[in-house]
Amino acid sequence: MPITKPELDKMKIMKNQSKTSDELKDTVKKKYAQISEQSRDENTSSCCGTGRGCDTVDYSVFADDYSAIEGYQEDADLGLGCGLPTQFAHITKGDTVVDLGSGAGNDCFVARQETGDTGRVIGLDMTEKMIHKAKANAAKIGFKNAEFMLGDIENMPLEDNIADVVVSNCVLNLVPDKKLAFTETYRIIRPGGHFSISDVVIRGELPATLKEDAEMYAGCVAGAIDMEDYLAIIAETGFTNITIQKQKEIKLPDKILEKYMSEDEIADFTDSQTGIFSITVYGEKPE
């Protein structure tokens, strides 16, 4: 039976979406591979953590301070987060915790402090250099129950119902298919388990030029979606008791916005109701 034109058009759209998704993931992988080789100070004092000058986004406007939290390891902190999800994650002794987009291991080591020797912490990241860095950090600390594996959040190499708690810090905004990411998150959490995720969301409509810039996507902003849409995806996935645990507005400096807008457009954007926010959101998988 021949393929109809509507079916052919749909196939072309799906192919283009897949190509765009793969291109964005490749951008993120390359950028975070570069970031993995730099210190926290280098990352937070430059834009997009690449040391090329402020032509994209400055991570220092996102990052929260971990230094006073028990379990914090300075070598594992690259300054790439936008919250403190482990602080709100209600981790208890013996829990199995999965960190999505674990980077150099910062949130994993904080979680390991909470879950103790009887628990298990699994860090998942799609950048090989980040995995190597996290494993090296774990070896220096001597943790035997913190492990790191290479994998895609949209297709996690983890079994069903493995996690008591899932955490993630400023990572799901980088994932092209957020519905699939939360579906996979739901799959790996055991019934009665929960997540605490820090992420970047928006209110209103971002300028088209900013949304279309792949570099800004890797810098957490262009990949962000509307807050209500974000929460709706979580609910549609099946999670309950969805709660925003923390929220803060993120102000992008004019030196960043100038790449995307004229002076008048920046003034209009600043005066509008559009905002960029870091939120830490909690949700439970029903028993």
Give me a quick take on this structure.
By secondary structure, this protein is of the alpha/beta class. It has helices spanning 5-35, 40-44, 106-115, 128-141, 178-188, 208-212, 214-218, 227-237, 254-257, 263-271; strands at residues 96-100, 120-125, 146-150, 163-169, 189-203, 240-250, 275-284.
Helix content range: 25-40%
What is the makeup of the main sheet? 7 strands, mixed
Which of globular, elongated, flat, extended, rod-shaped describes the shape? globular
What's the level 1 CATH class? Alpha Beta
For the terminal residues, how far apart are their CA atoms? 46 Å
Please name the defining characteristics of this protein.
7-stranded mixed beta sheet, globular, Rossmann fold, disordered N terminus, alpha/beta, single chain, 287 residues
Structural notes for this entry:
With 287 residues, this protein is of the alpha/beta class. The chain has one domain: Vaccinia Virus protein VP39 (Rossmann fold). Helices cover 37% and strands 21% of the residues. It has 10 helices and 7 strands. The protein has helices at 5-35, 40-44, 106-115, 128-141, 178-188, 208-212, 214-218, 227-237, 254-257, 263-271; strands at residues 96-100, 120-125, 146-150, 163-169, 189-203, 240-250, 275-284. The chain has a 7-stranded mixed beta sheet, sandwiched between helices. Helix 5 (178-188) packs parallel to helix 8 (227-237). It is globular. Residues 1-19 and 43-59 have low confidence and may be disordered.
